[in-house]
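Hey, resending since the last one bounced:
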Amino acid sequence: MKASTVKNTLMMTLGTASSAFAASGGREDNSGIFVWIFLGFCALIVVVQVVPALLLFFGLAKGLSKNKAAEPETVKSR
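The structure tokens again:
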């Protein structure tokens, strides 16, 4: 019984994956130079947005990790 269960599971797995092997031809890329310029511009926008976010995150982590055990100072009155 166990061997047939393993065999059935293997056949079902290979049967569903067989359609992935049907299209073995390479996909032709017809992207022009303007498509690549647009994608580069989008990547530039993402990088420009991520850099300040990382700086803020590391600043927050640095501020939270500081030792806050400073003693309060007394103020002398006149």
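The chain is about 65% helix and 0% strand.

Sorry for the duplicate.
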